[in-house]
Amino acid sequence: MKKLSKRDYGFIFAIVVLVILLGVSLYLGISGWFYSNISPVKSDMQLGKTVNVSLQETGAQALSFTFPGNYLPGQKLPQYINISNSSGKDLHVRAKAVVFSYEDGEKQIEVGISEHWTQNNEYYYFDQPLLQANKVALGTYVRLSEDEYYNSEKSYVLTIVVEALDASLDRQQIWGF
């Protein structure tokens, strides 16, 4: 039998360490340790706080809130939403609110609109042009769907999309309302 040299001991040590690391990696990968997420989902925006949306000419703005699924169907959630016109022009404004979940996709929810807003399909339209440097309240709450049940172990995303169109353009032709 041949005697092992110091160089051979180094190779054997490296192989043993690599086999142990491979075994640990396989165990952690199979057990799901690499894929688990134990930290709660956090959002910069908290549901229930007043939110201001600033519109810059023709375009769209979206606000997204993450909320837990421990709310009941049809529950009213307080959410004050203000829209301000920061452009140098008068604007036509419309908005919609949806809840997104991975399984069901996008579902429309009701917004407790203030006066001068009209609902048409999924959008809420402001009845008159929003004058430059003015602000208007969209709503004071959002109400979850009566027929939608949420899983208390999951999080959902509430998104409010606000769109603006230059008041000199024909909103009936572009938006259909």
Structural account:
- With 177 residues, this protein is of the alpha+beta class.
- Helix content is 18%, strand content 41%.
- It is built from two helices and ten strands.
- The chain has helices at residues 6-31, 171-175; strands at 51-55, 59-68, 76-85, 91-101, 105-108, 110-113, 117-120, 123-126, 135-143, 155-166.
- Strand 4 (91-101) and strand 5 form a beta hairpin.
- The longest helix is centred in the N-terminal third of the chain and has 26 residues, at 6-31.
- The mean pLDDT is 87.
Summarize the entry for a quick read.
With 177 residues, the chain is α+β, with helices and mostly antiparallel strands. It has helices at 6-31, 171-175; strands at 51-55, 59-68, 76-85, 91-101, 105-108, 110-113, 117-120, 123-126, 135-143, 155-166.
Summary keywords:
10 strands; single chain; 177 residues; alpha+beta
Structural class by SSE content = alpha+beta
The count of β-strands is: 10
Number of helices: 2
Percentage of β-strand residues: 35-45%
What gross morphology would you assign?
elongated
Gyration radius, rounded: 27 Å
Please give the share of residues in helix.
10-25%
Distance between the termini: 92 Å
Mean pLDDT equals 87
One letter per element, helices H and strands E, the order comes to HEEEEEEEEEEH
Oligomer: single chain
- Spans of 5+ residues with little confidence (pLDDT < 50)? none
Largest β-sheet summary = 6 strands, antiparallel
